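Lab meeting, item 3. Inverse folding demo.
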């Protein structure tokens, strides 16, 4: 396993992760963090770009499941509205929720990816579970705590500076 706090790849946001790139990597299951990855904490409404990216993944045949630490009903409500599966109370960086998701679809870790905005939960949890990880930029760090956490993440974001997904559509 590579150093567990360094993501496999980086992207500016989920739209920087093309379905064709995931297919070439042998990915079948896309696990998604929710807060600050798909929507900010302050709204439940995704942008048109995020909606279209999610729709594109499903249309391309990927299994898409939100794996969130949230205890909040807004995650299952979002999933119901946009026809997505979800696992809440995932307790990342512990791997239980991630492993539960892999088991639900009978997918090997190498065929799955976890996309999230936090090094100490998403990247660490995904790497420890043996799945590849994509770190996206947090949509909006609206509290002092989130801003401080981001500062603590900076060495690892820097370590992954050359891992940005660059993919030319063929
Ligand atoms: Mg998050």
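The presenter then showed the designed sequence:
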């Amino acid at each position: 396993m590579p150093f567990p706090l360094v993501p496999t790849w980086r992207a500016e946001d989920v739209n920087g992760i093309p379905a064709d790139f995931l297919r070439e990597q042998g990915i079948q299951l896309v696990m998604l963090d929710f807060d600050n990855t798909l929507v900010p904490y302050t709204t439940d409404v995704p942008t048109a770009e995020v909606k279209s990216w999610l729709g594109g993944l499903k249309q391309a045949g990927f299994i898409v499941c939100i794996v969130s630490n949230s205890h909040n009903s807004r995650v299952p409500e979002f999933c119901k509205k946009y026809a997505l599966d979800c696992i809440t109370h995932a307790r990342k960086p512990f791997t239980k929720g991630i492993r539960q998701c892999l088991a639900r679809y009978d997918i090997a870790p190498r065929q799955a990816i976890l996309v999230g905005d936090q090094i100490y939960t998403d990247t660490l949890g995904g790497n420890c579970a043996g799945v590849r990880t994509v770190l996206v930029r947090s949509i909006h760090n609206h509290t002092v705590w989130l801003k401080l956490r981001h500062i603590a993440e900076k060495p690892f974001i820097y370590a992954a500076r050359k891992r940005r997904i660059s993919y030319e559509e063929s």
